[in-house]
Amino acid sequence: MTGPKSLDDLELLSEHRCFDGVQRYYQHSSEAVGLPMRFSVFIPQQASEGRVPVLFYLAGLTCTEETFMIKAGAQRAAAQHGLMLVAPDTSPRGAQIPGEDESWDFGTGAGFYLDATQEPWSRHYRMESYVADELFGIATTLLPGQAACAGIFGHSMGGHGALVLAQRHRDKFQSVSAFAPIAAPSRCPWGEKAFTGYLGADRQAWADYDATLLMERSQNPFPQGILIDQGLADGFLAEQLHPEAFEAACAQVGQPLVLRRHKGYDHGYYFISTFMQDHIDFHAERLRGG
Question: Rounded to two decimals, what is the model's pTM?
């Protein structure tokens, strides 16, 4: 495991009693990123008796490690199932790279859960390594998450991250779902901007971080299915998200997918909180028993 080796290496920023468990916010020196990183964790009371299944949540553009825990209403459902919830920040902070704070959809708050290959971003923007290696290790060694029972989900940019990291790290994540994911980033403005900056102009390099393109070359990686919820009143749906492309890729390779389209729902956390129980139930069913 890279990164912190003991609980003493984690700085506890705050702690709150929550549904008979505890909500915590931590900061630590990150080996993967080379800067301090923050994450949040909800630990259910069942963890007092041993390790519990762990569910990682990846938030969207401009969000932080607090957004999900404050807005999604996930702790109640997680407590019912005895699931631990872990949510990282959405990018490194304070890298002091020229231009990293100039736009909301690239740089700070917009790490896209990949390991950048282009300078100067490649020095610190290594969110794939942070989430899938370092934070996964923290959650399943220093904290009471069970490594053999881990799932991942997310929203928008984080939905992209969940679908991609689940496929790229099939040995670690047993379940995956998403809310309004950027499902085909190679063909949308957000993805094109981020991939060009982080990965360079060669579109072939983008395929490794495009959920749809990854699925097209896979063989049914999640036989227990994938769940996606999408609001039809989402202002980003037509230009940025393209769930239909991921749906077609799943059909092509025989990957079971439930893509639910909801009339009247937009892109925000009122939508996410409405269907959060369904997603927690979905993961709990697949993670139960390892």
Answer: 0.97
